[in-house]
Amino acid sequence: MMQAPVFEARAVTKSFASLRAVDDCSFAVEKGAIVGLIGPNGAGKTTLFDIASGATRLDSGQIVFRGEDISALKPHQRALKGLGRTFQLTRVFPKMTLMENMFVASPGDHRLHERAREYLELVNLVDRRHEYASDLSYGQQKLLELARILMLDPELILLDEPAAGVNPTLLKSLLAFIHELRDTWGKTFLIIEHNMNLVMGHCDKVVVMSAGSVIAEGSGEEIQANEEVLEAYFGKSTHPLGRAGHGA
Amino acid sequence: MCSRKYVPSNDTGLTRRNFIKTTGVVAIGTAIAGHIPTIFAQQKKPLRIGASISLTGKYARSGEEQHKGYMLWAKHVNELGHSYGKADLPNSGEPGLLGRPVELIVLDDRSDPTTGVRLYNELIHSRQVDLLLGPYSSAVTNAVAPIIENAQIPTPNPMASSTAIWEGRNLQWQVQVQPPGSRRLPGLTQVAMEHGDEKIAIIYEDSEFPRNAAKALRARAKEDGLQIVLDTAYPVKITDWTPIVQQVMNSGATVLAGGGYLPDAIGITRATRSLGYQPNILSLLVGVALPDYRDTLGKAALTVTGDADWTPNVNYPGAQKYVEAYRSEYGGVPEYHSAGGYGAAQILEEAVRRAGTVDDFEKIRDIMFELKTTTVFNLYEVAPLDSPDSGLQLAANRVMLQVQEADGKLENAVVYPDEAANAQWIYPFQ
Amino acid sequence: MDHPLQLLANGLVVGAIYSLVAVGLSLVFGVMRVINIAHGDFAMLGAYVAFFAWDWLGLSPLVSLLPAMAILFLFGAGLQRLVIERVVGRPLLASLMLTFGLSLIIWNSSQVAFTTKLRGISYLTEPVTFLGVTMSQSYIVGFVLALILTGALFAFLKFTAPGKAIRATSQNQDVALACGIDVRRARTLAFGIGAALAAAAGTLISMTGFIYPYMGFEYLAKTFTIVVLGGLGSVAGALVAAFAYGLLESFGTAMLSPRIAPALPFVLLIAIMIFRPSGLFGTSVADR
């Protein structure tokens, strides 16, 4: 089942002016796992994603991908090495067709044409492949974004709030897609998500951040029982699932 | 203020750069004085003639040329006792003016009228020069006019084409040497009428000088019975004249006149050629006279007419010797600014030599106002002292040029007036 | 209105030349959010390359067009790498100040090197007539070349890998990075291409008009209006707006007056600012 880590954050630290956004943060993502990264707003989750993908430079520590320190690499180099990411607010190229969006990552290679179609088929968008991406619904754009990442043939995919703003039907197909990618293609996922049902129901492991640090790590059950996590989220009294249960 | 020796200091507003310029200029003056046989230098006190010229700033290019005209004049007078074309006047026996070596004192007004005023005050009061020559440009001339009137020193102004400086002001001490700005494109309407042209289009840049030129053209066209079928200004910052020339074409005009400066002349010619428009006369302000015009357009410039204050091929007495002297002294062909400078100094020279004195300013002044003469630059006659426009130039005329081909080379032939012409006006425009 | 076809032709020719300058300016803004004040100066430099190639070597501007573009491509790309890259992602004012300074340096050095003398190339000046439209050959050749070059740019952006990289960078730099695109290379490439197209425009202007060191600023003023009209960063918008600008000048002069015609693009600009603030083809922030 779980194997050697494909991704590791080692003592990653990043400050913006006087704010320590990420503070000595370490955790690992094992190959083939779906790992949830949770924490209150401002915990440093997205900053960590930016550091992992190279959009933000870290102050100290290391990002290790497939056993190699990639901390000094530029974002596009990391992408080409197989580290894909999506964004919190979905980002596609609005003035390109779906097919063009797919080929941005590896343009001109016609052998990839079939693959692009195949991925679009997986997300049920193949019929609209010649339409502009701006014509898609928000949820569909998320699917397109995910399909596009696959063109890079990434080993690890970082998803920033995949469920946000997606209607339940689409969310279901999105989750099915993620599982399929993991089960049949062996992809690894690191997911930032606020929907606790999703995290607890679909993640093999959960990493909890608060105020820039990792405060807990473990299975869904372990996390739900962790006092420190409860305190970080709601003070002492309430359980995170108590709230999440009403939402989403 | 009245220290005898001139010491440049900050309170006179002179910058370091200007100090260097000024001392440089004085050094040139001294060098010219150095040509005179030592005997004269010892016997006769130098005659110090002052002027401010725009040697830096926006008029620098033209001011520099005018300065060259002054310097060349001083050199000739110091070597020969007269300038070119003025050998037959009285008192031309010994080198210098009335035997006194000429020393030019030229200061730089930085193209700024206010500085010009300060410098003429300085020349008159601190430096106590013997005589004056005018500055460059209408703007500076206009600003210093009251100073010179007050000081009562007879002064010829080489490069002030604005008539407003003289009109109705009854100036007593200053004369205009340059042809007035209102007499543009001479011969245009006459030649058009002779050939039976009826319709003229006037297009001009919407700024001070072209507006005035268009006004004068309009008046002359009406006077001579031409029908103005299009009369329109266009904005300063245009880069394509095709739409306007298209309109001229649609108006049915057979004479197109106007423009503004060099860019306008080139742009209008290009548009005319491009649209295949064939008027009988295409006549443009300013640009045609300049070598850049022919260089840029090549054969597209052929038979276009335009005017000039002066050209190097005019036949005024001494003009060709002057062009030769300029070439050997500075290299290249002189522009009208330098000929104007030389010509204005010649008016001063002639008045002084006819008066036989450098001290009796009234006598020199009276002669200067009554004189009817020719310089290397142009004809000369001004409105008399007792008239409202006293000192305004009456005789000087522009010449009409036409780009013609001679021995495979493009050049500006003088085609009007007949006295100055060295070629036939090619009609119609080809 | 007389000769509508002629007016149309005049407007299109001028528009085509404007478009060469404008698409580059818009491309550069799109890819790096830099308003390049020195963009017009690239046209000027290109014009002088063509002029001296003609004056010294006797090369036709149609021949020197390619070397002029190549030289300006390298110049633009080098400038981007060394200087402009440093202000990418900084506030707009930083890049405005920087490119304004560059423009002053280029313009003033050119004035020293080339003098303020007006110059031009007399080439293919003979007019030809078809369908009642008369025009000198240089205008027609200029028009066709401008169309070919703009067409080539569009094909490049649409179909080639580096072109797609430029478009992706322009639409979303972060995603482009996440897709493995070297956005820095895309920016350098785009800047060089912009400079090369401006140089092509300069070459054509040396043939149809006249050139002088200060000309860059006058063309920049027009093309900036065009780029805003078309939507900042939109290459297609710049193209359409350039033709609109040329046609407004041509028809406005004939139907209204030469004094009013230059104001028309600005009237259009104000109208567009009111009804479609992001320009003809612009994407508003919400669309991103």
TrEMBL record, chain A:
Transmembrane segments: none annotated. The keyword Membrane does not apply. Residues 7-236 form the ABC transporter domain. GO terms for molecular function: ATP binding; ATP hydrolysis activity. The keyword Transport applies. It comes from the Bacteria. Keywords: ATP-binding, Nucleotide-binding, Transport. GO terms for cellular component: plasma membrane. PANTHER family: CONSERVED COMPONENT OF ABC TRANSPORTER FOR NATURAL AMINO ACIDS (PTHR45772:SF9), CONSERVED COMPONENT OF ABC TRANSPORTER FOR NATURAL AMINO ACIDS-RELATED (PTHR45772). This is Branched-chain amino acid transport system ATP-binding protein.
Automatic annotation (TrEMBL), chain B:
Belongs to the leucine-binding protein family. This is Branched-chain amino acid transport system substrate-binding protein. Keywords: Signal. It comes from Modicisalibacter muralis. It holds the Pfam family Peripla_BP_6. Residues 46-377 form the Leucine-binding protein domain. It comes from the Bacteria. The keyword Signal applies.
TrEMBL record, chain C:
GO terms for molecular function: transmembrane transporter activity. InterPro entries: ABC_transp_permease, BCAA_transport_permease. GO terms for biological process: amino acid transport. Its main location: membrane. Pfam families: BPD_transp_2. The chain crosses the membrane at residues 12-35, 65-84, 91-110, 130-157, 189-212, 224-248, 260-278. It is a multi-pass membrane protein. Belongs to the binding-protein-dependent transport system permease family. LivHM subfamily. This is Amino acid/amide ABC transporter membrane protein 1, HAAT family. It comes from Modicisalibacter muralis.
